Amino acid sequence: MNCEVCQLKELEVESFEIREVLRCILHTIVFHRALGLIRPKDIDLELFEITYVQCGEIEVEKKIDEKVDQFISWIEKHPNKKSQICLSFYEVKSKQPSWFTNKIERLYWEQWYINLNVLQPTKAPVGKSHHSKLVMDPGEASEERSSRRTLLEQSLQEVLFQIIKFVNEKKDHVPPINDGVIYCPFEITIPS
Amino acid sequence: MSSSHNRSSNNNNSEGAKAEQIIFEFFAKSLHIILESRTPFMSSRNFSGEQMMCSPSSSSSSSSSVRPRDKWFNLALRECPAALESFDIGRRSTLEPLVVDVVLVVRPLVGDQMNLSGNRELIRNFSGKEYQSSGWNSDQDELGCETKNEQIIERWVVQYDNRKIRESATTSSRRSSSNKLQVMYKKATLLLRSLFVMVRLLPAYKIFRELNSSGQIFKFKLVPRVPSIVEPFTRREEAEMQKFSFTPVETICGRLCLSVLYRSLSDVSCEHSTPMSPTFITDYVGSPLADPLKRFPSLPLSYGSPPLLPFQRRHSWSFDRHKASPPSVSCSPSPTRSDSHALVSHPCSRNLPPQPSEMPTGRRKESYAEEYSPYQDFSPPPSPSAPIQAVSRGITRTESAPVRIPAPTFQTKQNIVAPSPHLKLSRHTSLKPVRDFGPGESGSAIDKLYLYGRDDFRKHSGMRLSSNSSPRISFSRSSSRSYQDDVDDPDFPCPFDVEYDDITDRSSRPGSFDHRGDIHEPLESSGSFPKKSQDAAVGALVRMLKKAPPLRQDVSESSIPEICWNNNKPARAQEIAVASITASGIALASKTTADAMEELRTYKEMKNHLLLSQSTSNPSSVTATSPFDA
Questions:
Q1: How far is B322 from chain A, CA to nearest CA, in Å?
Q2: Cα separation of B568 and B199, whole Å?
Q3: Which long-range contacts (CB under 8 A, 24 or more apart) does A42-49 make?
Q4: What distance in Å separates the CA atoms of residue B572 and residue B567, rounded to the nearest whole number?
Q5: What keywords are assigned to this protein (chain A) (predicted)?
Q6: Can you tell me the distance from the alpha carbon of B444 to that of B420, in angstroms, rounded to the nearest whole number?
Q7: Partner A contacted by B57 (CB < 8 A)
Q8: Do β-strands A41-44 and A51-54 pair in parallel, antiparallel, or remain unpaired?
Q9: Contacts of residue B265 in chain A, CB cutoff 8 Å?
Q10: Which among A50, A51, A169 has CB closest to B247?
């Protein structure tokens, strides 16, 4: 089985926008790969007029939030860097257990690369990026901020369309639906 | 060999049936996803929100509440009756394409050009072109005003294309067919996941969200339709729209296709939707702003009758009578001198804005009918105007009754004797409330009212009533009589529902009331009534009415002096007298027994005076004993 790779369009985000953007993209992808019985949840972004969908699994939400927090921490230590987050779906293949190894092999069948260009924050303090409620920096020029926000919203929508197109065009590599499996196992890799 | 062939054919049939079932459910699920995100107030977002408040593990909690339809494609959605109904109606065959049109309906107000222009602006922003260009259907009423504009902003097409016969359909391998069914089902599931996300990314979803979430009233609405007859778009319309086609899902005998044509949305938001925010209606019925008195002088006499502020006051009395409490509603009209006289001010009414909720319906109707100035802002009453006019006229005269009790009128009435039977009857019929206080004494009770008429006391200054009583009594009597003449309303609860003739009849016995001096005192104050302005008198009367407690308790507590009328039943007559006053709704503020006795004394003096005058003119006449003589 080949591994399908999808490179998503690069997004220019500010530090306080990372959380919302990443959650939107990651949940959308995972939702498309949650082929078990789910009750989808609509989530409205606070910074953009976009509604994305979550699969409704708490474990998925926790896993994604954890990785997003880790990435934000990394960004704070490495500002002004283009970063890439990789979301990989795999199948668990257990190798023949031997005396020495009892590895569980992962066969990745799909990888998504989320490209972010984190802009240097102007006056936003460090703690703000961790807040769930994002507060606009009052010091920024409102017009410049709004135009940039509009562009980001459009780009984010394009990314979501890109995900939909990719999911529609490539379906053969997706593993069959297994009973009891709600979502395909995945892992999120952040730069180190 | 034949058995294997039969088995394979049977398997193919079963596989085909399963495939057909998958296709059927795919249509249903697609429709469900589209409609739940386009039908206002039917959205899985609420469903999701509820889920968030429920148990954290959706899978564990969902198992107990999973409907059979939810299991299809492993997508549990909120119940959408519109989807089910549309699907039941629309689906006759899986071969027929399922079309869902999402229509934006804009309803400009008739004659509201501003709104129409705003709607045009909305549509222009929405489509990027003039709304008249294409795709808009307008309905016009017989007046030629546009009442509705519709535009299809989305068209979803779900169809099963079975023209292309797949080679796999001919394979006899059961395993491959089964595998293909699984693959088909998996791909259909993936497609529906994409559809679920897609419907929330398209521009129409913004409108759906605004309609659902905002509490404002918009001039447009989103109407998803499943047309039985699909009108294809014109080339121009199609050029204005964007198309997205989902990758078809290969099936055993064809493929499932799903596509959408949608209009781009330049700027559709609350700002451009010009929603109608709720506004406070300040000039609601009964509000101070709608006080008729403020605008009364400027209003034309549309009903051909004098203004009806007195009318209002009258109804306030009736209301007061019913409630046995001071009238809380003013609409308090100023008294009118006569039908032709202009109104006078009545400050008390201004202080008490009308309260329609407390007003009887009849009053409100009449008020609407007559109070043209203040009630112009109100919707016309449902009742026909004719009876209202009759009532109004009657009320007008009624309201003018106090003015029509002048001293000369009283003087000319020489035959204040026991009420004649017919008068009694008429009074009986007109004084329904009075009857409640004494069986069959309404007539005599009315007589008491006559005797307590303000004119009597005014004429004979020695007598006086309490300030609370006489004016109201006189008003009520005359007003009730006039009213009764015009409106045969047996339930009319006017305390002054007394024939005017009775006033004149009873005025011949003023002396019978001069029983107590204290009764005179109020009359003295009211004796100056003709000298005072009508407004002040009516205002005083209204104030008395408002402050007056129920008279019932006065009947039982007060010691009633014997008053003998024609039947030589002093005690009973006295009771009747007081009871009549009570029953008539004259809430005599702080009326005491002493006041009542004062009135009796006054009448007694009047009677004696008349008798003396008669005796001097005719010495042979028998001096009638005063019924009030104890």
A1: 58
A2: 93
A3: A42/B43, A42/B44, A42/B45, A42/B48, A42/B200, A45/A20, A46/A20, A46/A133, A46/A134, A47/A17, A47/A20, A47/A134, A47/A149, A48/A20, A48/A149, A48/A152, A48/A153, A48/A156, A49/A153, A49/B206, A49/B269
A4: 10
A5: Autophagy
A6: 10
A7: yes
A8: antiparallel
A9: none
A10: A169
* Nearest Cα residue in chain A from B257: A168
State the smallest CA–CA distance between residue A121 and chain B in angstroms: 29
Confidence class for position B26, pLDDT limits 50, 70, 90 = very high
Model pLDDT for residues B93-123, shown as the tens digit of each residue: 666 888 999 998 887 665 544 444 444 444 4
CB contact under 8 A, A38 and B70: no
- The number of beta carbons lying within 10 Å of the beta carbon of residue B117 is 12
Answer yes or no: are the C-beta atoms of B609 and B512 closer than 8 Å: no
Q: Which band of pLDDT confidence, cut at 50, 70 and 90, is reported for residue B388? A: very low
Tokens 């799909």 sit at which residue?
A: A110
Could you tell me the sign of the dihedral formed by the alpha carbons of B427, B431, B432, B438, in that order?
negative
Burial (CB < 10 A; 0-12, 13-18, 19+), residue B238, is: middle
Roughly what angle, to the nearest 10 degrees, separates helices B2-36 and B174-198?
Answer: 0
Judge: A58–B57 Cβ closer than 8 Å, yes or no: yes
Measured distance CA(B474)–CA(B456) in Å, rounded: 9
**Given CB atoms, is B121 within the 8 Å cutoff of chain A?**
no
**Is the pTM of the predicted complex or chain greater than 0.80?**
no
Contact status of B247 with chain A (Cβ, < 8 Å) = yes
B68 Cβ contact list (under 8 Å, min separation 6):
none
Task: Considering only the beta carbons, identify the residue of B45, B58, B247 that sits closest to A38.
Answer: B58
Rounded to whole angstroms, the Cα distance separating B21 from B448 reads 91
| Contact (Cβ atoms closer than 8 angstroms) between residue B524 and residue B471 | no
A163, A168, A176: residue with CB nearest B246? A168
> Do residues A191 and A74 lie in contact, with contact meaning Cβ atoms separated by under 8 Å?
yes
pLDDT in tens, B313-367: 444 444 444 444 444 444 444 444 444 444 444 444 444 444 444 444 444 444 4
Closest partner residue to A57 among B59, B70, B209, by Cβ? B59
Is the pLDDT assigned to residue A114 strictly greater than 60?
Answer: yes
Residue B187 near chain A (CB below 8 Å): yes
> Which chain B residues have a beta carbon less than 8 Å from that of A163?
197
- The pLDDT tens digits of the residues spanning B240-272 come to 889 999 999 988 888 999 999 998 876 444 444
**Which of A6, A25, A26, A39 is most worth mutating to test chain B (most B CB atoms within 10 A of its CB)?**
A39
Mean pLDDT, chain A, rounded, equals 86
Q: Lowest-pLDDT range, B172-176, B279-283, B494-498?
A: B494-498
Query: Measured in whole angstroms, how far is the alpha carbon of residue A23 from the centre of its chain?
Result: 5
Closest CA–CA distance from residue B376 to any residue of chain A (Å): 46
| Most A CBs within 10 Å, among B53, B200, B242, B268, to test the A interface | B200
CA angle B204–B208–B210, rounded 5-degree value: 115
For residue A37, give the nearest of B49, B52, B62 by CB distance.
B62
Q: Do A58 and B52 touch (CB under 8 A)?
A: no
Q: Give me the phi and psi of B509, to 5 degrees please.
A: -125, 55
Residues B220/B131, Cβ–Cβ less than 8 Å: no
Output phi, psi for B45, to 5 deg: -65, -40
* Structural contact between residues B519 and B598, judged by C-beta atoms closer than 8 angstroms: yes
Please tell me the distance from the alpha carbon of residue A162 to that of residue B499, in angstroms, as a whole number.
90
Coil, strand or helix at B450:
helix
- Alpha-carbon distance A25 to nearest alpha carbon in chain B (angstroms): 12
Residues ≥6 apart with Cβ < 8 Å to B171? B177
The ipTM estimated for the assembled molecules is: 0.89
Residue A16 distance to chain B (closest CA, Å)? 23
